[in-house]
Amino acid sequence: MLTEIKYPVKNPSRIGTIIGMIALISSQSILGLRLWNQRGGFYTSLTVVLLCLVLLLLTLYRTFFKKPTELCLSNEQIILNGNMINPKDIKVIMTRGYFKPVIGILPYRRKIVPLDMAFRYSKDEDKGISDLESWAKMNNVKMVNKSFQTWI
């Protein structure tokens, strides 16, 4: 019987998002310079560059500078990033990837996994995933290997 198990977890790596934002910033900067004389096109490109810069900074912070937190599995709930998640609120738990897998907890009435419900284990990932599978089975929560989306 599971009582309480804790694991250090961290935010998933967002290298693909970082590369995508750098590519968008570069292309929009070049486009903005070419449209220097056309005010509408220049300001549109400038707005896209600024928006992408904000997203890039947020992504860099979440990926490299945010400290690891803790996942706590107890009999009747999961505590992740300080949020208590009850089994009845979980539609499905998804695992994406094989090396350094990312876990996403999808609540009911959501199509996209919330940012604070996506994580990867800092260490002991095999044991962590097997304990999470045991918790899911014990609480009648579906757990699948499937790709999923999060914001940013």
List keywords for this structure.
3 helices, elongated, 152 residues, 26% strand, 8 strands
SSE string, helix = H, strand = E? EHHEEEEEEHE
Strand content: 25-35%
The largest sheet is: 8 strands, mixed
Low-confidence stretches: none
The average pLDDT is: 89
Level of helix content? 40-55%
Distance between the termini: 37 Å
Kindly summarize this structure in a few lines:
The chain is of the alpha+beta class and 152 residues long. The chain has helices at 15-34, 39-65, 125-138; strands at residues 4-10, 69-74, 78-80, 83-85, 90-96, 102-107, 118-121, 143-145. Strand 5 (90-96) and strand 6 (102-107) form a beta hairpin.
How would you characterize this protein structure?
- The protein is of the alpha+beta class.
- Helices cover 40% and strands 26% of the residues.
- It contains three helices and eight strands; from the N terminus they run E-H-H-E-E-E-E-E-E-H-E.
- The chain has helices at residues 15-34, 39-65, 125-138, and strands spanning 4-10, 69-74, 78-80, 83-85, 90-96, 102-107, 118-121, 143-145.
- The protein has an eight-stranded mixed sheet with strand order 4-3-2-1-7-6-5-8, with helices on one face.
- The protein is elongated, with a radius of gyration of 19 Å.
- The two termini are 37 Å apart.
- The relative contact order is 0.19.
- The mean pLDDT is 89.
